[in-house]
C-alpha cells in the first residue's frame, strides 16, 4: 500500500502560526514524521511525503505528485485556527471531499474516533469540504484538523511531543483498521 502524508502548509507559509509564534508546519511535520515511523512497521507499506523541508510545496504540486505516484491514500495533517488572536474555539475535526467513496468517509470516522479517544478534545465531527487536496486527489483522501493553535490550552498540546504522537497513533491505527495492514515480523 502506498500512502502519502502531507504536513499541511510549509515552514514559510505566512499567517499559519499561533498567537505566541508556533508555526503550524512544525506540528504538522512532527505528526507526519511520527506517523511515517509507525507505518513503516507494516508489511507492503510505502510512505511518501507531499511536503518538503527545503521549500513550501504548492497544493497543486502535492496533489499532482500523489496522483502521479498512484498512491492509495492521502492524509493531510493540520492544526486549526479561529481568528487572529486567542479564542475558545477548540476540538478536532476531520474532512473528506463530498464525492469521495464511502471508504474515505469510513476512514475519516475512524481517525476522528481515535483522535478524540486519545486526546479527550471536543469532537467537532467528520465534515465535507472543497479543499484542494481533497478535491484534486484521485485516491481516498482525508484532512485532519488536530486541534486549534488559537486556543491557549490546545496550543500547548500542539507543542507537546506526547500529543503529536497521540495524533499520529490515532491516524495510523485508523489506517491499520481500515485497510487491514499486517505488522512486519
Automatic annotation (TrEMBL):
Which terms does the UniProt entry file under GO BP?
peptidoglycan catabolic process
Its keywords, alphabetically, are: Hydrolase
Carries keyword Methyltransferase? no
Q: Name one GO cellular component term.
A: outer membrane-bounded periplasmic space
Q: Which SMART domains match?
A: Ami_3
MurNAc-LAA domain: residues covered = 63-176
InterPro entries (UniProt xref): MurNAc-LAA_cat, N-acetylmuramoyl_amidase_3
- CDD domains this protein is in? MurNAc-LAA
Name the Gene Ontology molecular function terms of this record.
Answer: N-acetylmuramoyl-L-alanine amidase activity
Q: Which protein is depicted?
A: N-acetylmuramoyl-L-alanine amidase
Species, as recorded: Mesobacillus zeae
